[in-house]
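Board notes (copied after class):
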Amino acid sequence: MKAMILAAGLGKRMRPLTDHCPKPLLPVAGKPLIVHHLERLRQTGIHEVVINVSYRAEQIIDALGSGDAYGVRIHWSREAVPLETGGGIQQALPMLGEAPFLLVNGDVWCEALPDQHALQGNDLAHLVLVENPSHHANGDFGLVGGRVNQTNTERLTYAGISLIHPALLAEQPQGAFALAPLLRTAIDNQRVSGERYAGLWVDVGTPERLAALESQLQS
């Protein structure tokens, strides 16, 4: 299985830290955030990784290179302007191939990744869901019996980690578009499974949350 790390965002919520450093290279526990992702992917047996880049792209490419230093092979998908989640994935599909792949948002911290075989049957996605953080108290989706829904009153938050079948993006036009509407349609069609993750997970979206994560890891 291959993996894709989404790393093309502008990092606006992280300013001023991202004025001169792209968000994936911000340090956490002594190394860039994205390096933790690469190391976890290698540990789970994934060695082919696609990374999309746009803002300060060359800075990220220069820092990570071919991926040899981290035991993986990196394929770079360059975006002249950010294509959002869906558009970024779509542009990278020729590098990802026709099999399901692991998708990781570059700005989350998570101590574990889903089993590579969690996506089964005719499903188009398998989502990792977590307890709602304070900044996203209403959550995103419900989860019952391993199936994701939009009807439950009890909601969980999408962790930014999933297994995706390329068919989820079939027939989408080229250009910038979000992934979320496609996931919601697939959920309504009962083609999305999920799991609840109870370990350490952080949406590293602001300087304050980055500092809190650093403090938690140090302790």
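Comment from the instructor: The chain has five helices and 13 strands. The helical segments are 33-43, 57-64, 84-96, 180-188, 207-218.
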